[in-house]
Design a protein that fits this description.
The structure holds two protein chains of two kinds. By secondary structure, chain A is mainly alpha-helical. Chain A is built from two helices and two strands; from the N terminus they run ααββ. Chain B contains 20 helices and 25 strands. Chain B is elongated, with a radius of gyration of 35 Å. Classes of the chains: A mainly alpha, B alpha+beta.
């Protein structure tokens, strides 16, 4: 009876060992296979990124073309805008460095619209 | 165990042993050999495409960029239906079907069908899934502003090597050495790894050109060309204090995106390559030299009532009748007689010295290829009448840039500046690695320059030759030029062909821009004040507004406010 028990244990042990070995080999293969799959996915994503960057560059070049000064003037002229009359442009000179300041078109005697400093 | 079982075990064991031995052979004994073979099939070495550096204006606006494109090629041996393929491709590529068919039936295993096709079009061709048609990614140079500043920027050839302008001059900075990357593919040709994801790009160039000012200049140049139908025309705008070229335009010009078949005469950067006799704009040399050398004062008088003067057996006359003129009036009215008298008082040696001081006869050193130095003969080679001719801008050949630079010396208090178009060179990451510093050399005293500047202001006042060049709200200092072209066949100056010019700077008191307009052989009028003067005014008016330069009379007109201290909240 002891002999039969021993042979049963020995058989189960061998079976377990074999199973572990098979599982181990399977795990290695599965991991390597996943790595290769991930490599393919990565490569695919890199290719997509490349395409998107190409598109971005094309859009950037288009943007540069659309932002041409000549185009701005044409669009502005079509919208009824004109080159500013320099008589209607007022310059504000900040005589004091830093800090808040005010300026207004309040005329002073004999000097037209000039604010005092 | 019975015999059968032993045989089965032996056979199975032998089979396993054979597999193990073979595996050992492949993976251990001949590992290196098979690895090399596998790598040879899987790993492909490729050159990383090099992106050319960008070119920008002084405000960072793009003037030259790179576009991703694809070039289409064919392997004729792989084409299964040449006629159908040729028809499909001809529609998309805009070429005749028979031309396509010739390439598809070629003997070689490779032929380009079209270089640098836009991605959208390449994608449509790809979608057709045509046998034997392949694609190679390539970078194409694109100029988003078309023909703007074409003579400054230049262009590249199909291999992206610079051929003209800054593209050529700084070709080494704009490009960089390529590197290899290794792409890994599987047995079906699918990419497993793209290799090192490096972007190789040349350095970026920042120009002194301002796109807005360049557009203003080109707009008015086109209007002038349409009105006067000249053979050619040039406008140059420079900061007289530093030598930065703000705008440079020539006509005829060309579109940088279609430059490959442009005829040579359109490619010439006439602002620096074309020589002409400057005429009255050259009077600045004799006049300022005489002031500097104190052979005259501003109050000196010159009798021009005869209307002509004889020098070395040749009679030179004034265009308009003048009486006795002051030194200032000689310049204001552009009297040839008065100028020659000034030159005679100066002497030919000193006149020549000041011509060289002002940079005539030598290249300015601008960072663009093809600059001409001009022609200025040594006084030893002058004839008896040369002193008269040279004083009024004949017998000398100059470029528009040289004339502009000379007037800039008056504008900035007596310094001859070195003009340049490249402001900065930056790495692809934006770090500046080189910056151009202004270079200048004193040629006149500040006093002489200031006095002469005041005299040049009067040219655009009533009675001056260039009232049409005056700018509303700002004082202009400048000079007109109306020079006859020399006819080598007739061996005399032409009575029909002229060069009309105006050169000046504004605002005269604190110059922000110096500008020269040169019109070669205008039809219908010849005088610089009539042809070139109005162009100067139109360009200067818009340029001053663009640069937010206030009017000189802003205080009087209430257009300038001065701040008062406010309360902190």
């Amino acid at each position: 009876m002891i002999l039969r028990k021993k042979s049963r244990i020995s058989f189960l042990g061998k079976a377990a060992l074999l199973s572990i070995l098979v599982l181990f080999i399977f795990a290695i293969i599965a991991v390597r296979s996943s790595v290769v799959t991930l490599e393919y996915q990565l490569s695919s994503l890199e290719a997509k990124k490349k395409d998107l960057m190409k598109d971005a560059k094309v859009l950037s070049a288009d943007r540069a073309r659309l932002f041409a000064v000549k185009r701005f003037e044409n669009v502005a002229a079509a919208g009824g805008m004109v080159f500013p009359d320099r008589m209607k442009v007022v310059y504000v000179k900040n005589a004091r460095k830093g800090g808040a300041y005010t300026a207004s078109l309040v005329p002073t005697a004999g000097r037209g619209a000039v604010a005092k400093d | 165990m019975n015999k059968r079982a032993i045989i089965v075990v032996a056979v199975v064991s032998a089979a396993f042993l054979a597999v193990v031995v073979r595996l050992a052979d492949i993976m251990v004994l001949n590992h290196t050999k098979f690895l090399a073979k596998a790598q040879g099939q899987q790993i492909k070495k490729e050159l990383i495409p090099v992106k050319r550096g960008g070119i920008y204006d002084r405000r960072g606006r793009e003037l030259a960029v790179n576009l991703e494109t694809e070039s289409v090629f064919v392997d004729p041996a792989e084409v299964s239906a040449p006629e159908a393929t040729a028809k499909a491709l001809s529609r998309e590529l805009g070429r005749e079907a028979r031309v396509m068919l010739t390439k598809l039936n070629g003997d070689n295993r490779f032929a380009w069908l079209e270089r640098k096709v836009e991605l959208e079009r390449a994608h449509r061709i790809r979608e057709m899934k045509l046998d034997g048609i392949g694609f190679v990614p390539e970078l194409k140079r694109y100029y988003p502003k078309g023909s703007l500043a074409s003579h400054v920027i230049g262009f590249v050839n199909s291999e992206n090597a610079g051929l003209e302008g800054v593209e050529r001059q700084l070709d080494k900075q704009l490009s960089t050495r390529t590197e290899m990357t290794m792409r890994v593919k599987d047995a079906r040709g699918n990419t497993l790894s793209e290799g090192a994801q490096k972007e190789l790009k040349g350095n970026d160039i920042v120009l002194t050109i301002d796109e807005g000012l360049q557009y203003i200049v080109e707009k008015h140049l086109d209007e002038t060309v349409e009105k006067w139908r000249p053979v050619s025309a040039t406008i140059l705008m420079m900061d007289p204090r530093t030598g930065e070229i703000l705008a440079l335009a020539n006509r005829p010009a060309y579109n940088l995106n279609n430059a490959s078949d442009t005829p040579m005469q359109k490619l010439r950067n006439r602002a620096i390559t074309d020589l002409y006799e400057p005429g009255s704009t050259f009077k600045i040399v004799a006049a300022s030299a005489a002031l500097e050398e104190r052979t005259v004062t501003t109050k000196s008088l010159f009798d021009c009532s005869a209307g002509t003067i004889e020098v070395g057996g040749r009679k030179i006359k004034d265009d308009h009748h003048n009486g006795v003129l002051t030194f200032e009036d000689v310049i204001k009215k552009s009297s040839n007689v008065g100028t020659i008298k000034i030159a005679l008082g100066l002497g030919k040696q000193r006149l020549y010295t000041y011509m060289k001081k002002f940079g005539f006869g030598d290249r300015t050193g601008i960072d663009l290829a093809g600059e001409a130095g001009g022609l200025v003969r040594h006084p030893d080679k002058w004839s008896g009448m040369s002193i008269g001719a040279v004083a009024i801008g004949q017998e000398v050949s100059v470029t528009p840039l040289q004339v502009l630079r000379a007037y800039s010396a008056i504008a900035n208090g007596g310094y001859l500046v070195k003009p340049y178009v490249v402001s900065e060179i930056r790495t692809p990451d934006g770090l500046p690695i080189a910056r151009t510093a202004p270079v200048r050399e004193r040629v006149l005293s500040e006093k002489t320059a200031n006095v002469f500047r005041d005299m040049l202001k009067r040219v655009t006042e009533d009675g001056g030759t260039a009232k049409a060049a005056s700018v509303d709200g700002n004082e202009v200092a400048g000079k007109t030029g109306t020079a006859q072209l020399y006819d080598p066949k007739a061996k005399r100056y032409s009575k029909e062909r002229y060069v009309a010019s105006f050169v000046g700077f504004v605002p005269a008191g604190d110059p922000r821009i110096a500008l020269i307009v040169v019109i070669h052989e205008p039809k219908g009028a010849i005088y610089g004040g009539v042809v070139a003067g109005p162009v100067f005014r139109a360009v200067a008016h818009e340029a001053l507004s663009y640069l937010s330069v206030p009017r000189d009379d802003q205080r009087e007109r209430g257009l300038m406010l001065v701040s008062t201290p406010g309360r902190e909240k």
